[in-house]
């Protein structure tokens, strides 16, 4: 068993990749998200080529899916079918942890590595490049 690959985005969001597409013959990816209070989280988006299931491990995450807002706590789960616009945030004083399962395994740790490269560059992030990377990995940003 290999250890999780940890990608610290430096903005209150950590991604712990458990199983990447290469580990599962592209059947799924599995990763834990650690979301600190007031973390900068991805813009509202939808997935055009994979579904995502979230499972609460610690704390309470606010999840917005289409016009529905739900709280995801320990032991709770939520299935996000491709095409459904969603976003999430931690508006508590506690760290939140969730497990994310993406199926099929087309969404990989390289997405977060590419995002890290953009947000850690000098100056403000290149928003056009961020959008380009999101689209490359099947995430379609939606203006609020």
TrEMBL record:
Pfam family, one: Cupin_2
InterPro entries: Cupin_2 (IPR013096), QDO-like (IPR053146), RmlC-like_jellyroll (IPR014710), RmlC_Cupin_sf (IPR011051)
Cupin type-2 domain sequence ranges: 33-99
Protein name from the UniProt record: Cupin 2 conserved barrel domain protein
Organism from which the protein derives: Dyadobacter fermentans (strain ATCC 700827 / DSM 18053 / CIP 107007 / KCTC 52180 / NS114)
């Amino acid at each position: 068993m290999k250890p999780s690959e940890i990608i610290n985005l430096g903005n209150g969001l950590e991604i712990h990749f458990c199983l990447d597409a290469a580990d599962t013959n592209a059947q799924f990816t599995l990763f834990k998200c650690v979301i600190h209070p007031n973390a900068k989280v991805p813009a509202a988006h939808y997935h055009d080529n994979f579904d995502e299931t979230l499972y609460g491990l610690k704390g309470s995450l606010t999840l917005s899916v289409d016009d529905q807002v739900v709280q995801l706590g320990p032991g709770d789960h939520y299935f996000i079918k491709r095409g459904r616009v969603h976003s999430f945030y931690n508006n508590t004083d506690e760290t939140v942890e969730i497990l994310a399962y993406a199926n099929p395994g087309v969404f990989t740790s390289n997405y977060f590595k590419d995002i890290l490269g953009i947000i850690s560059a000098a100056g403000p992030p290149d928003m056009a490049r961020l959008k380009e990377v999101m689209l490359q990995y099947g995430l379609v940003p939606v203006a609020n």
